[in-house]
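step=encode ok
step=design start
structure_in=
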């Protein structure tokens, strides 16, 4: 065994032990965690955490309604019903979920500043916009993994009897276990039919449908806003949320702190934590979710200042101070006085460890369940900073939801299904999808109920055979095995993979190396090798 491999195993074992015997979530180190955001919610979107195996068949999973700006970490699973969703990554990369789609965040890891992202499309259709040549990004369907280490836009569809990937822009490598890799460029597609004994087919990408046009419009608007707002960012490696700040607020200079930001239309009495809700995660404890489109960066990075005549202003901070690059579950400091009063105050850029928060001068915010009150003046003189909110002070604002239905869709029916949904539009006022004539759109399971799913190449356990809504026939689910990240393919284990091994932006096909994909049941907040 090589020294490098041995060190990886030791580090991995140490990390798992650290998770098992971890300190309480409130004291967890978030400086190296990868936490991304749910940046758009249209219609019915839900999520579950730390799923073991197939989230569509695991009865132990607890599903909750997803809300705008939900923090997403490794192990989360996002699902849409009659809705669509967008997830934004740190550098502006994006994932778009079509209706009746289930996306698992299998691996969100960080190694010496390089990000590894490995996702699984468990069901449905999703598109991906990747804009970094320094990071690794891959998506697995039921039959192969599509990966890129360069700028690319591609769509992956996972059917009952196979999978397809269409490359809209850039370059994508398709990996299959014990098979040669396939290199795709703009306008090409790769399809694999699990019922046929073939290595897959490379062809022309399908023509754009309503979902593709929806994705393109959101990429265009998001990248334009992000480029405009990036002038206020101190690092090109983190741009998520700056486009929303540019769209929904204004920047102005603040003496000693660079530029500050405030949303449009707020007055001197505006309180930044009056609009949103709290939620609890086993990894990082209690966090705040802003319910406005701009409500990501100001509540998880940087700090707040109270400017005379202006009110509360958010300051992004700099890399050297650690303010902007360190994730906070909420940009607040919890405090307790010697008299027993408790509450929180917004973080200040100049707060020092062991000293009372500077923003105490602006009063104290108290939380009781979901209600937040502001005490304008505090008389206590001795304050101690707490690691977390007082027990029982907060109430989770998220609500439970039903498990997503398993929906049947086959390669043969995909063209007809796409055409039947081409006029599907989202009615924001009615909060639902409608057809061209205005009627409520039915689920994909209903519209494709006349198609019978073909047998899968790998039959799972009987517990993984389920029926979709309206008793549609659904075939046994295939086993999902994501390809290892490129940096992990030099280890010699069981399975053989071919694909990219460079993060320089030039994607090259290398000789096959042997690795073993890490078990999908190893759910932790660290990376998988």
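sequence_out=
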């Amino acid at each position: 065994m090589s020294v490098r491999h041995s060190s990886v195993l030791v580090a991995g074992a140490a990390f798992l032990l650290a998770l098992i015997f971890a300190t309480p979530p409130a004291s967890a180190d978030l400086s190296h965690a990868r936490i991304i955001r749910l940046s758009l919610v249209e219609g019915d979107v839900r999520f579950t955490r730390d799923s073991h195996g197939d989230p569509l068949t695991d009865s132990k999973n607890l599903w909750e309604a997803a809300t705008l700006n939900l923090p997403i970490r490794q192990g989360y699973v996002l699902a849409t019903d009659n809705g669509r969703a967008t997830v934004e990554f740190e550098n502006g990369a994006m994932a778009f979920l079509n209706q009746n789609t289930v996306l698992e965040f299998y691996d969100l890891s960080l190694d010496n500043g390089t990000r590894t992202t490995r996702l699984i499309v468990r069901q449905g259709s999703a598109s991906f916009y990747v804009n970094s040549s320094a990071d690794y990004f891959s998506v697995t369907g039921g039959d192969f993994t599509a990966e890129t280490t360069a700028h690319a836009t591609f769509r992956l569809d996972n059917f009952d009897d196979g999978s397809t990937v269409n490359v809209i822009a850039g370059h994508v490598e398709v990996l299959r276990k014990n098979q040669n890799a396939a290199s795709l460029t703009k306008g090409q597609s790769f399809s694999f039919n699990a019922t046929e004994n073939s290595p897959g087919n490379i062809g022309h990408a399908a023509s754009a449908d309503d979902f593709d046009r929806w994705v393109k419009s959101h990429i265009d608007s998001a990248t334009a806003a992000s480029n405009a707002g990036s002038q206020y960012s101190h690092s090109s490696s983190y741009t998520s949320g700056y486009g929303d700040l540019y769209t929904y607020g204004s920047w102005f200079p603040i003496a000693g702190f660079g530029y500050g930001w405030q949303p449009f239309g707020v007055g001197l009495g505006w309180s930044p934590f009056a609009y949103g809700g709290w939620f609890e995660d086993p990894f990082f404890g209690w966090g705040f979710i802003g319910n406005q489109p701009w409500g990501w960066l100001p509540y998880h990075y940087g700090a707040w200042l109270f400017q005379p005549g202006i009110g509360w202003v958010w300051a992004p901070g700099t890399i050297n101070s650690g303010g902007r690059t360190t994730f906070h579950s909420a940009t607040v400091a919890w405090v307790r006085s010697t008299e027993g009063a408790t509450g929180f105050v917004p973080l200040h850029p100049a707060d020092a460890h062991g000293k009372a928060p500077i923003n105490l001068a602006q009063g104290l915010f108290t939380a009781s369940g979901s209600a937040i009150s502001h005490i304008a003046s505090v008389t206590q003189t001795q304050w101690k900073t707490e690691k977390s909110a007082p027990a029982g002070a907060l109430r989770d604002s998220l609500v439970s939801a039903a498990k997503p239905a398993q929906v049947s869709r086959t390669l043969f029916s995909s063209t007809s299904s796409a055409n039947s949904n081409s006029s599907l539009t989202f009615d924001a006022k009615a909060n639902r999808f409608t057809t061209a004539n205005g009627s409520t759109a039915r689920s994909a399971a209903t519209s494709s109920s006349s198609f019978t799913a073909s047998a899968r190449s790998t039959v799972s356990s009987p517990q993984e055979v389920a029926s979709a809504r309206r008793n549609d026939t659904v075939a046994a689910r295939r086993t999902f095995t994501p390809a290892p990240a490129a940096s992990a393919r030099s280890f010699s284990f069981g399975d053989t993979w071919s694909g990219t091994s460079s993060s320089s932006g030039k994607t090259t096909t290398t000789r096959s190396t042997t690795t073993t994909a890490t078990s999908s049941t190893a759910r932790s907040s660290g990376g998988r090798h």
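step=design ok
step=annotate ok -> The chain has two domains: 39-206+405-529, 241-386.
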